[in-house]
Amino acid sequence: MARPRAVPRRVENPGPEEYSLQGVLEALADPVRRTLVAQLSRADEDMRCGTFDVRVSASTLTHHFTVLREAGVIRQYYVGTSKMNALRDADMEARFPGLLQALLAAEERERDAVVAPAR
Q1: What's the pTM value of the predicted model, to 2 decimals?
Q2: 42, 76, 43: which is closest to 62 by C-alpha?
Q3: How far is C-alpha 36 from the chain's CA centre?
Q4: I need a surface site. Which of 2, 17, 52, 108 has the fewest CB within 10 A?
Q5: pLDDT tens digits for 73-98?
Q6: What's the Rg (C-alpha) of the chain?
Q7: Cα of 11 vs its chain's centroid, Å
Q8: Widest CA span of the chain, in angstroms?
Q9: CB neighbour list of residue 83: distance below 8 Å, 6 or more residues apart
């Protein structure tokens, strides 16, 4: 039987003053990471790591979450044994006005074009 943890699990999330435009753009350059951000944006609530619809291994998914967290795009935290993910849209808007919304709008247009190709 496992012993209860003496110290609750924590994830280090950078503060908005630590965000850099270069880091955010590099994090969002990857299509898998853009998909993760778009899914979080469309969700009604924060999402557990295992609930995202992407076709990558668990270790690759962990890497993508780490890149997004370190860039400041998402915040991660634990609820019990589940690692939760939240989009830091208010922080991103305050630091880089319009950037995240423009990216999400472009991602949606691109996704829609793939789903319903032009005739």
Answers
A1: 0.85
A2: 76
A3: 5
A4: 2
A5: 999 999 999 999 999 999 999 999 99
A6: 16
A7: 14
A8: 61
A9: 11, 48, 49, 65, 76, 77
